[in-house]
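Hey, I was hoping to borrow your eyes for a little while. No rush at all, and the record is pasted right below:
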Amino acid sequence: MTATSAYPRVLGILGLATLLAGDAWRNLIGWWGWGAVVGVLLVLIVIEGVRARVNLQRVPIGIPVFLLLTLASALWSAYPVATVLGSLTTIATATGAAIMVARFAWTELVAMLAAALRWILGLSLLFELVVSLLVRERVLPFWVDWSDLDRIPAAFYWSRNLLLEGGRIQGIVGNANILGMLAVLALLVFGLRMLLRQGSPLWAWVWIVVAVATIALTRSSTSIAVLAALAVAIGYLVLVRRASPARRPVVHLAAAGAVVLLVAAVLVFRAPLLALLGKSSDLTYRFDIWDAVIGLWAERPAAGWGWVSYWAPWVEPFDDLVVIRGVTYLQAHNAWLDVMMQLGIVGLVVFGALVLGATARSWLLAIGAGDTAGDRPRPETTLPFLLMVALLVQSLAESRLLIEWGMFALIAISILTIRIGSEPDARPLSRIVRNRG
């Protein structure tokens, strides 16, 4: 690989790693340092897009509509400055996603994603090992002064030094749920690349073991739920792809019925399931958080309080909206409630349409719609749909869909699938996905 061709790839890996593990930068160099890193990377990605003359014309209408709504909400926002900052952050994320999808082939993006995840998981385990063997005490994020607190809540620590004690590790991102979700994503990507016989089979198995070990060490109930949903989705796709065109409707109906029964079973047996996962009946204060968010939304139901993406801790009402055991929560722990609170019913409809479009198109790609009888199913065409499944399940318990990697993936999948669907020729989707955007 030449230096010229290596540069875009390294830039892409750094960008994806920053989106996936932004908390690591914030813990290491603070919010201002993280902002500087993100700003530099965005400028470099835009320059690379201009240099490569990427085509940004084919973008789903839902993306600009949603982005314009976030910015326009500054007109009625209760915190207009924070709304402008939040909107610009969201627009920057979407811009980066659009450029990267246009600049790289889908398989190249997957390879860069795999590299970024390897670095994150590897550094996370190394970080926890160093803390346990050398530091031997809990570690706080740098550049933060909590000396005025009588007791520092456990949630504030970057690492709680629990690796050798059998506790939940947090890795470089400083959060077990985030690290667990990244490990699930890594397991999906590493498994796909192994099926495609990309890279060394030995190292593929090594990193799959690392991903599984990380999931076990984080013991994140959200990650386990996502993993279960992915297993169901993969099983469904296998059945659909093996079925004849005449039998596919039966498979679709059976799968829909199975999902309904599964959801019903989870609702009926939620108490023992939560106990098995080590969760309280209130889903670790989520009911309290949701009640507070719904109460706030009810005051401005139509258009919400104004977009902010990350809840700004210095802005009212987020500075004391949800404070539990000394910890100020800065998300609704449900992406849909978060959108509804920030942009009201109008925003929920717009955002829902964007997500629905991306999910529907990725589903058509995954089941091989448009392929001819002679086309061999390709595993890489299933990844956009499986990523959407993971994001949607996570969105029920976390608001990460609205920021960083979550928003990037949503925009990237939306653009990728709309471009595939609008190709003027009749090439099968499984071939188009391997070409540059």
